[in-house]
């Protein structure tokens, strides 16, 4: 069992992840662009895999009908995106890989909302790429609401 640690910018919120996946995804939706300041690069973590410390410094924002985002109330660091609607992804965290103390060895395997990606940058390599319509269909949505 491997353990990975991470924290916000000021250290008021920290977390420990058990058995971190080695793959991560990138989201190019407009909400993630605004929240992360660019694309969101994040690893999926099951609720049972993660433990937070400093929970009194965690603010939550219901960013859509189907997901919440959290942030450190001290420094403002974005902590997670989390699906809140019932279904196979409910309760999954998307933890930004930049919060991990060590993100070496991770591999990007998926880009979502690829049709909303700005033309100012592109990532090398081949991976699964899903459009806005494909992603929304996965969550039973008809309009953007990531």
Q: How many extended strands?
A: 11
The number of domains is: 1
Q: What is the SS-derived class? A: mainly beta
Mean of residue pLDDT values: 93
| Distance from first to last alpha carbon | 32 Å
Order of helices and strands: EEEHEEEEEEEEH
Query: Spatial order of the strands in the main sheet?
Result: 6-7-8-9-4-3-10-11
Low-confidence stretches: none
Radius of gyration over all CA atoms, rounded: 15 Å
Summarize the amount of helix as a percent range: under 10%
Count of alpha and pi helical runs: 2
Q: Provide the CATH top-level class.
A: Mainly Beta
Shape designation: globular
Task: Please render the helix and strand layout as text.
Blueprint: E1 3-7, E2 14-18, E3 23-27, H1 30-36, E4 40-45, E5 50-53, E6 58-62, E7 67-72, E8 78-83, E9 93-96, E10 107-112, E11 128-130, H2 132-138
Parallel strand pairs: 3-10, 10-11
Antiparallel strand pairs: 1-2, 2-5, 3-4, 4-9, 6-7, 7-8, 8-9
């Amino acid at each position: 069992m491997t353990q990975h640690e991470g924290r916000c910018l000021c250290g008021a919120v920290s977390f420990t992840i058990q058995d971190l996946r080695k793959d991560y995804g990138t989201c190019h939706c407009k909400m993630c662009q605004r929240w992360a300041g660019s694309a969101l690069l994040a690893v999926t973590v099951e609720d049972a895999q993660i433990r937070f410390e400093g929970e009194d410094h965690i603010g939550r924002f219901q960013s859509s009908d189907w997901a919440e985002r959290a942030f450190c109330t001290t420094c403002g660091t974005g902590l997670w995106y989390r699906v809140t609607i019932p279904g196979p992804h409910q309760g999954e965290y998307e933890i930004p890989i930049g919060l991990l103390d060590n993100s070496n060895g991770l591999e990007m395997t998926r880009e979502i909302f690829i049709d909303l990606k700005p033309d100012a940058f592109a990532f090398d390599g081949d991976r699964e790429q899903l459009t806005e319509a494909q992603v929304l269909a996965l969550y039973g949505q008809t309009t953007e609401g990531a």
